[in-house]
Amino acid sequence: MRRDEMADLTAFVVVAEARSFTRAAGKLGLSQSALSQIVRRLEERLGVRLLARTTRSVAPTEAGQRLVDQLAPMLHELDQSIADLSEFRDKPAGTIRITSVEHAAKTVLNPAMSALLKSNPDITVEITVDYGLADVVSDRFDAGVRLGEHVARDMIAMRISADIPMCIVGSPEYFESHPAPKSPRDLARHRGINLRLPSSETLNAWRLMQDGEEIRVRMDGPLVFNTIDLILDATLDGVGLGYLPEDQVTNALSSGKLIKVLDDAVPPLPGYHLYYPSRRHHSPAFKLFLDAVRYRPSIPR
């Protein structure tokens, strides 16, 4: 159905329910003559008389009433659906869809959601963990989370974390058969447990400092995962070295289950940023979400 046909049907229903061209014209913002022409055009197109007109009244014919009975509920439901959208303008409600890497979801998003969702029960936050660089527009996400350097230039970016301390760790069992590396060059003799990046189908390179310059090292190794939790498990099992966020191995380091190596050669990663395509028409729920995850240096995550 064309848009003009839908508009004509809507105008007819308004006239039939108002039982007056005058009142209907006022509701629709049209002149009486224009509204009369619309109804006449609709009747000619359908080949049936829809309204009985006298000098004092307007009433639907039997055919017209049947059409009103069928159309009016649908049109009123559509009006209500549009009216319901005002809730998204006036109060925090609705679903916010976020795509994020695993570590950011665990250490930044999830903790920030606790207070937000307890005080705003009509907000739902859906977090999809994905190491691919999702297109938030085409994939219908409200926002994405990535390391600062990976945010597209045409996106609005907001820092949500401090820089991320990283470390290279191995188990005591692993170091029994593989002497601990003394410099980044020694890593060539070691086995790494790697993270696969779906955006490039490559293995995540380990960032290291060597001779005052940052280098990227791609490790050979027996296992490749797409989640850091499994990398941690395999590292604890002595399969190889893991390159992991330091906050994910704190307990294992304290208990002696893992040993950190090359500490001075592992720089932090740039902090996480939330990215989204526009500053316009943000719902109250999304504005509250932005405030909840915004990085404040004085507030530890």
Automatic annotation (TrEMBL):
CDD domains registered for this protein in UniProt: PBP2_CrgA_like_5
**Key word Lipid metabolism present in the record?**
no
HTH lysR-type domain location: 4-61
| InterPro entries named in the record | LysR-type_TF_proteobact-type (IPR058163), LysR_HTH_N (IPR000847), LysR_subst-bd (IPR005119), WH-like_DNA-bd_sf (IPR036388), WH_DNA-bd_sf (IPR036390)
Q: Is Transcription one of the keywords?
A: yes
List keywords of the entry alphabetically.
Answer: DNA-binding, Transcription, Transcription regulation
* Top-level taxon of origin: Bacteria
What is stated as this protein's family in its record?
Belongs to the LysR transcriptional regulatory family.
Please identify the protein, giving its name as recorded.
LysR family transcriptional regulator
